[in-house]
Specification:
Length: 144
């Protein structure tokens, strides 16, 4: 799941990788529309698996943060309205999920985007975000 969820610069929302073509990707919106379209070589496409967030010790993968939010919210969308939340409300939410996040380098807009993406994924039916290394290698070992 982690490698197939994409963010495309300039386009709102998140997208699922459907297929790869020559110099393009075929993506599908993770929302009610399920609209498919090509993402060309000029589009800046980022896999959510490659995104991390600054913490005081080392950067934390976004999927681990999504898993922490899922555990906090019991697998439901975040109850905090990220559009209307003030700076203190966003900071309190982030501290409850990642206590050691870097308050100097993680901006309010980053926290808003994090909540927005999490809600998109949960509303799109995604419930498990972080996988253990043992679980990730188990299907490969069983196939051999």
């Amino acid at each position: 799941m982690q490698d197939t969820i994409l963010s495309i610069s300039g386009k709102p929302g998140l997208f699922k990788l459907i297929s790869q073509g020559r110099a393009m990707l075929i993506v599908e919106a993770i929302d009610a529309t399920k609209k498919r379209f090509p993402a060309g070589a000029r589009d800046r496409v980022t896999s959510l698996n490659d995104v991390t967030m600054y913490t005081e010790s080392e950067d934390k993968p976004l999927m681990d943060i999504f898993q922490a939010i899922s555990e906090k919210e019991n697998g439901q969308p975040v109850s905090l309205d990220y559009k209307k939340a003030d700076k203190a409300g966003l900071a309190d939410f982030m501290a409850s999920v990642v206590p050691d996040y870097d308050r100097d380098r993680v901006h309010d807009s980053d926290i808003r985007k994090l909540i927005q993406w999490y809600n998109i994924l949960v509303n799109g039916g995604y419930t498990t975000f972080a996988t253990d290394e043992a679980e990730a290698t188990a299907p490969e070992a069983a196939a051999e």
